[in-house]
Design a protein that fits this description.
alpha/beta; eight-stranded mixed barrel; five-stranded mixed sheet
Length: about 650
């Protein structure tokens, strides 16, 4: 009796075993895809081992036949299991946590078919090592198994290449390789039945898969080496799908902003690495998540005892001062507890709720431990709705510009207008500018929105000959983001030139917050526009970083006093003295004054006595659309 060639199987066994060891030595994120790959490694090892045993037993007549048949059956289960688990590996890679009806049907059909084929193979006594008298039976059995394997591989290939968003080249190579080697192994099995090559082909295939799944860096925060937001989101998705009860305990450090501003980002990163090492040592590597720009999180049992113990362990660690850049700093951890968070549908919503909870805790200096209850989730959902409304308005160019008149006390008429952006959505209705502008500045949409708004203002000035209506200029608000743009002046002048608008017809408003950002860049842009004929105002003076130093340093023509200064002055003597002194200070440095929020004749009379130049508010008109402001100006200035 000629012997079988086991060399390839021995090499395959050692190789797959080595892959298994390397796989477990790495910091693997325990998501479903990695769990499936681990099953594939086990099936690869067991398939190679049981195949070798089958042929060893076959060559020894003394081996009981039931033991031989049992070994064959076990081999078939493991060998077929490798193909089936690969199919699920592909589906999990493409759509994590999602199973379509077709995917389920393919999986169930393959499992049932594999079981039936295994039984048929045993009953027919037609194993892959059958005698020469049953060669035809062997071929039929081989064709049946081959058809099942090709069915699974083709479904995997179709799923992979239909998904154009998947850029995993190694996985596609592995799938094509499996298809080719399955055909090749089928040929070798018929032409050279004593060469055991299937196990070795499977080992190379698993190596390609190992490379394709070697993407755990996308689940790791590279700075500190623990799991990141993506890992947290997948973990929560698994908990929600399987209805596992869980509690998320997160914490951050109160002093993060201080450390960042005073000691720099490098000190923050060094601190985070030390915190991560402590958490690894105290709670293990596989349950620590670094949530970007928030802090840390971990999954716990829902028992209050367990939660309290973890909080106490962390608090104890921070009782001692931390040495940062040679300075001893006392750090205060604050905690957010999301206990069985039914308010959320996914991990991102939990992250958003934790972020907003911490922001509120820092703002209000509230307790060191707070529950996440979902009260901020509506705010996040509202923000997403507003973002969608803004994207739609940008696409449709449906932002509107309203205009509010500014009254000249000396000339007794309207001499200027303030342009104010408005957004009306067909679903959300009127969205306040304070809301959507803040959101737009946060996510970068303000650049496109500002471009639309300024073009509409220039179009209004050009089309309506505002000089003939008695209006010298229109005030246009510059956003904080625009003020940081080194090409701001060039961009604005280009648009004004396109519409044939003189720069003297536009007064640009900046806020106190804007001038606190990058004052040198801001001054360069201001000087370029002033040289061209424009003027500048400081809007909402008295609500932010108010200093006389900036009033003197910035080339401002007008200072606008906010209504929050005016209104209290009408009720309180001390507040009135503040208003009077503020007006005197501004006038002493040769700046014109606009007072906002004027709503009564009493306000007008008081401000006139205080020698203010311009008034703005509902006493004269609320902000109104372009066609209405034209009619208003014709009538108002005619009376004046």
């Amino acid at each position: 009796m000629s012997t079988y060639i086991y060399d390839f199987n021995i090499a395959a066994f050692i190789f797959i075993l080595s892959l298994n060891v390397i796989f477990h030595m790495k910091q693997i994120f325990h998501n479903r895809k990695n769990k499936i790959f681990h099953v594939m490694l086990v099936t690869g090892i067991m398939s190679t081992l049981t195949e070798t045993l089958c042929y060893v037993f076959y060559q020894h007549p003394n081996v009981p036949r039931p033991l031989l048949l049992l070994t064959v059956f076990i081999h078939l289960v493991y060998f077929t299991g490798g193909f089936i688990t690969f199919y699920f590996f592909v589906i999990e890679t493409i759509h994590p946590g999602v199973r379509s009806l077709w995917n389920k049907l393919v999986g169930i059909t393959s499992i049932v078919a594999a079981f039936l084929f295994s039984i048929i193979t045993i009953l027919a006594n037609g194993t892959f090592h059958s005698s020469s008298n049953s060669a035809s039976h062997q071929l039929i059995i081989l064709i049946i198994w081959f058809a099942l394997f090709i069915f699974l591989i083709l479904n995997s290939l179709i799923s992979l290449f239909r998904n154009r968003n998947l850029n995993n080249v190694y996985l596609k190579i592995a799938c094509c390789y499996l298809f080719i080697t399955t055909i090749f192994s089928f040929y070798i099995k018929i032409a050279y039945p004593r060469v055991l090559i299937a196990g070795f082909s499977n080992a190379i295939f698993l190596f390609f898969l190992f490379i394709s799944s070697d993407n755990d860096e996308m689940y790791l925060d590279k700075t500190v080496g623990c799991y990141n937001n993506r890992a947290f989101i997948e973990k929560t998705a698994d908990c929600f799908e399987h209805k596992k009860p869980f509690t998320v305990l997160s914490f951050t450090i109160n002093e993060y902003p201080y450390i960042d501003q005073v000691l720099g980002q490098e000190s923050v990163e060094a601190l985070n690495r030390r915190i991560t090492q402590f958490l690894f040592k105290a709670f293990g590597k596989h349950n620590i998540y670094a949530l970007y720009n928030i802090g840390y999180a971990m999954f716990l049992d829902s028992s209050q005892t367990d939660v309290n113990q973890v909080i106490q362990t962390i608090q104890k660690h921070f009782r001692e001062p931390f040495s940062l850049n040679g300075r001893l700093e006392i750090l205060t951890p604050i905690f957010c507890l999301a206990k069985e968070p039914a308010f959320a549908k996914n991990g991102q919503q939990i992250i958003d709720e934790i972020h907003n909870t911490f922001a509120d805790m820092n703002k209000n200096k509230s307790h060191t431990v707070t529950y996440a209850t979902g009260k901020y989730l509506k705010l996040v959902q509202r923000e997403q709705q507003v973002i969608y409304a803004m994207k739609k308005a940008i696409e449709l160019n449906s932002f509107e510009v309203y205009y509010q008149p500014i009254y000249d006390l000396e000339a007794k008429c309207i001499r200027s207008l303030e342009a104010l952006l408005r957004l009306n959505d067909d679903k959300l209705g009127f969205i306040p500018p304070d809301e959507f502008i803040q959101i737009a500045e946060k996510n970068g949409m303000i650049i496109d929105i500002s471009s639309i708004a300024f073009r509409k203002v220039c179009e209004f000035i050009h089309d309506n000959d505002i000089k003939s209506l008695g209006v010298d200029y229109v005030e246009y608000n510059l956003s904080i983001v625009e003020c940081d743009n080194p090409m701001l002046a060039n961009d604005l002048l280009e648009v004004m030139n396109e519409f044939g608008v003189s720069p003297s017809q536009v007064n640009f408003e900046i806020t106190e917050t804007a001038q606190a950002h990058n004052i040198s860049e801001l001054i360069r842009n201001m000087e370029r526009l002033i040289e061209s004929g424009s003027t500048f105002s400081m809007d909402d003076y008295g609500t932010g970083y108010s200093t006389t130093h900036y009033l003197i340093k910035l080339p401002l023509h007008i200072v606008k006093i906010d209504k929050s200064i005016l209104w209290p002055a009408m009720k309180d003597a001390k507040s009135y003295n503040v208003l009077r002194q503020l007006i005197a200070t501004i006038k002493s440095i040769d700046k014109k004054i606009v007072v906002e929020g004027v709503e009564t004749q009493e306000m007008v009379d008081i401000l006139d006595k205080l020698d203010c130049e311009y008034l703005q508010g509902y006493f004269y008109s609320k902000p109104i659309p372009a066609d209405q402001i034209i009619r208003y100006l014709k009538e108002m200035n005619k009376k004046g």
